[in-house]
Amino acid sequence: MTFKKFSKRAIVTSLFLGVVLASTVALASWLATGTGKGYAKATSALPLTTSAATLGSSSLYPGGSADVYITVNNPNPYPVTVTDVAGNGAIVTTDNNATCDGATGVTFTSQSGLTFAVAANSSASTTFAGAAHMSNASDDACQGETFSIPVSITGHSG
User: Which of 49, 56, 73, 90 counts the most CB atoms within 10 A of its CB?
Assistant: First the structure.
């Protein structure tokens, strides 16, 4: 058995031709392009709600102010920043004291420009210092009462 000796030039040429042949085969494959559309559906924002919060040590009295405590519930799958909390209806007592409810003299100072964050699918509480006010016209029946202050909440994602 005899073996031929190959020169370096023959080896290099063979390798070069092999690379050219392989790249030609690769270029011979078909290219495919196209256009189309992808789809994603946006969720609908769920409304923020409030729930009862524990009251602190400040109390209303005729001519005075007290803190308002609020817990905001965020049922959305994204965090929300509350920017405004405004009074939204008649302020009444939590035990429906008819004598006091008709003449509470209690008002709420709306809060705006807030950056109160509520995480996704959770609740968070805050205090609005001195936001409830009782007039000197409040009835004696309002002594010791807890007031329910309806509010509307405005916020945005993020």
Answer: 73
Residue 94 has pLDDT above 80, yes or no: yes
The reply to whether 18 falls in a domain is no
Within-domain flag for 138: yes
- Asked if pLDDT for residue 72 goes beyond 90, the answer is yes
- 39: tokens are 């789809």
pTM above 0.70, yes or no: yes
Report the 10 Å Cβ neighbour count for 73: 17
Q: CATH code at 67?
A: 2.60.40
Give me the number of domains the chain comprises. Answer: 1
Tell me the pLDDT tens digit for each residue of 101-139.
Answer: 766 788 999 999 999 999 999 999 999 999 999 999 888
Give the separation between CA 59 and CA 108, rounded to whole angstroms. 14
**Domain span at 111:** 49-157
